Amino acid sequence: MAKEFTVIIEKDEEGYYIAEVPELKGCHTQAKSLDTLMERIKEAVQLCLEVEKKKYPKTHLIGVQKIAV
After folding, report:
1. Helix (H) or strand (E) holding 53
2. pLDDT of residue 68
3. At 24, phi and psi to the nearest 5?
4. CATH number at residue 23
5. Range of the domain at 28
6. Count of domains in the chain?
7. 32 touches 38 (CB < 8 A)
8. How far apart are CA 14 and CA 22, in angstroms?
């Protein structure tokens, strides 16, 4: 059975897409296209799971909120 993870995607000033998986500490990657980004984040998740070998904390994304300061 496949495990599901939340992926947060942002775009930086130079046009790169950045993906992060909050459930897996240090699991992130970047790419110029969304297609490549999704391939790379899948690989990153697989590597993080191999390294961790233990239970990872299960969190659930509630939402994203902008604030003005």
Report:
1. none
2. 93
3. -115, 105
4. 3.30.160.250
5. 1-69
6. 1
7. no
8. 23
